[in-house]
């Protein structure tokens, strides 16, 4: 359902993506891993045009996202995005966060939006926080609310940009549990993450990006379990055994 | 002496000096004459009810109209200032520089006397129309800069999250960014409202009639009429009746919104 062809993105003279080709089929969960600064987040943000690609093509379903005449708002409605920093709207309650997109963008009536919000808050286990403001929630609760906000739009595809990277370690599990549930329900997901155990367990496919290109891709067992590239191996060692790192190993 | 004892001793000296200064002023002042000049009960009685029903009412009316106009225009100018279109940005910058740099008094005279001469017509709305436009234009220049700072203080992720839901840029601005910016700039906006309350006294330049007088003009007219400073004191107090509760209300509002930030 998504096809990315020869995607390039430069910020000024810095080329971050150097020709990415990736296909994701309906219901597939793809985890994108790689060192920081490798272009993972940029790739994700190029899919819903938060970053405009320098060249190349992104096609979702039968719509060419990279067509300059495209109605980008219409496409973004079909793509849910979850951010590292949650980006909940702090001036709105949790319920209002989940209903505002439905009301203002999908033009659903109040009762319908409320009903969808209640259902999605229950799905992420936040029914009891419906009336709270984001500042009153823990990081994990905020991220689950952000997932509910995206789900309420009924997306065909969910993008997760390091959804657990700003959470305390003991809270990461509750967010991953929600994501695991989504994957089991058949949601198409692209997840940029450093959670290797999650990738191993949930991903249909793992993509390793380094220096703006896909260096390695395949099923999780293969890419994480027995990587073929030396750079993939070094990255995995650093992520899986951070305490064992020597200063000389660092890039 | 320990540090704490020394701090306490220094504070005691400060209090003593302060009390001594106040005490000296109280002892030296001629209270009889002050009472006659500033607090003539008969004059106070004469001032009511017009000081409330005409003067205070007009001050509030002029201020609110100018503030409302300035707020809307200020928001538009701020959005132009942040626009990707160069011409809009340039226009907004010129506007802000001009109306922020020129005294409100000159702008008011310009509109009160310049426009009727230039266009051979009165300003629509008479006194109220003139002061709304003139003071509103000046206030808009300040508020535009305040709005711009507030909008820029909203984290970038808020716009990205709103756009990701499929909101257009304009819709995201209205529903997500501006409401948050508004909370951030509530204190400076209150300052602007209070400044405007006092600037509304400039209306005397337009030659006001009895029913269009506001507090300052009313106080000065009464000063001449009764040959007493009392109206000035009462008019001053009337300003405080507006501004002090306003400050209190805004502090309450801020405290209320603190949880939703």
Structure description:
The complex is a heterodimer of chains A (251) and B (261). Chain A is α/β, with parallel strands linked by helices. Helices cover 37% and strands 24% of the residues of chain A. Chain A has nine helices and ten strands. In chain A, a hairpin with a 2-residue loop joins β9 (205-210) and β10 (213-218). The longest helix of chain A is centred in the C-terminal third of the chain and has 16 residues, at 169-184. Chain A starts with a strand and ends in an 11-residue tail after the last helix. Chain B has 261 residues and is mainly alpha-helical. The chains are: A alpha/beta (251), B mainly alpha (261). The interface between A and B is medium-sized, with 29 and 22 residues.
SSE map:
The complex is a heterodimer of chains A (251) and B (261).
Chain A lengths: L1 E10 L2 E11 L4 E5 L6 H8 L7 E6 L2 E2 L7 H6 L1 E4 L11 H11 L5 H14 L15 H13 L5 E5 L7 H16 L3 E5 L3 H7 L2 E6 L2 E6 L1 H6 L4 H11 L11
Parallel strand pairs in A: 3-8, 3-9, 6-7, 7-8
Antiparallel strand pairs in A: 1-2, 1-4, 4-5, 9-10
Helix pairs in contact in A: 3-4, 3-5, 4-5, 5-6
Chain B lengths: L2 H26 L2 H8 L2 H7 L2 H32 L4 H16 L2 H16 L6 H28 L2 H9 L4 H16 L1 H14 L15 H12 L3 H28 L4
Describe this structure in a few short sentences.
The complex is a heterodimer of chains A (251) and B (261). Chain A has 251 residues and is an alpha/beta fold.
Radius of gyration of chain B (Å):
24 Å
Q: How large is the count of helical segments of chain A?
A: 9
Overall mean confidence score, pLDDT of chain B: 92
For the largest sheet of chain A, list the strands in their spatial order: 6-7-8-3-9-10
- How do the SSEs of chain A run, as a string of H and E? EEEHEEHEHHHEHEHEEHH
- What's the N-to-C terminus distance of chain B? 47 Å
| Fraction of residues in β-strands of chain B | under 5%
Distance between the termini of chain A: 36 Å
Helix content of chain B: over 70%
Structural class of chain A: alpha/beta
Major β-sheet annotation of chain B: none
Averaged pLDDT of chain A: 93
Shape of chain B: flat
Q: Give the helix tally of chain B.
A: 12
Low-confidence stretches of chain A: none
Flag low-confidence runs of chain B: none
| Oligomerization status of the protein chains | heterodimer
Count the E strands of chain A: 10
